[in-house]
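Sanity check. The docking grid for zinc ion depends on where the pocket ends up, so I'm generating a full predicted complex first rather than guessing from homology. Inputs follow.
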Amino acid sequence: MLIDFHTHPLNHRYYYDGLRPETLTARDREDILGLLALGVERGLDAIAVTDHDLALSGLWAAAEARRLGLPIIVVAGCECELYHNREWVHILALGLKAPLEYTPYTPAAELAARIRDQGAVAVLAHPMAYSLAAYHSLKTVVDGVEFRNGAQARRGAADFTAVLDADGYRGLRLCGSDCHWPDKPAPEQWAARTEMNEAEFFRLFGGGR
Ligand SMILES: [Zn+2]
Ligand SMILES: [Zn+2]
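Predicted complex below; grid placement will be based on this.
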């Protein structure tokens, strides 16, 4: 399966204002469906919807994709921003069933536990954007690492594989475009997607076709 594990259909709409809306507007819904249609057009089998500190869009997208019978599986998620050891870091929660409770000052281990309580997966987003110390302090807290990130690829600093290999990292290795709708991802950004076998995908995220 081809999966994009990191997308933002609502771009920075609520994030920069620190808002956590409880309902989506008509425009929000239109943008989410636009991103899903792009995912289908790009040949993805599944797409994670991971807006900034907001699970609502992903949860709605997953339900709507099922209701409409879209030919793409939606993994509901969000990208959580935490202040960790004097650095801002992002942790992707993938496979959420409900919104997550946390603040930027929730300890990373506690956030990861809350993510796992939902049967979801915690992934360190774009580790190449932080100090190496951040990776080393979080690698055993999370279930996986985003070894490649499309938005970082656009800035020329894409791949964390060499660090993971040198460190003998045994957790999940995922990647995603980090596409911020309606920006159409450049080819190198869209190329940041994960190939995963079906059994592994359904073991992690449940369900089935
Ligand atoms: Zn991020
Ligand atoms: Zn992101």
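Relevant for the grid: DSSP finds eight helices and ten strands in the chain.
Also worth noting: Residues 6, 8, 79, 178 surround zinc ion (ligand 2) (CB under 6 Å).
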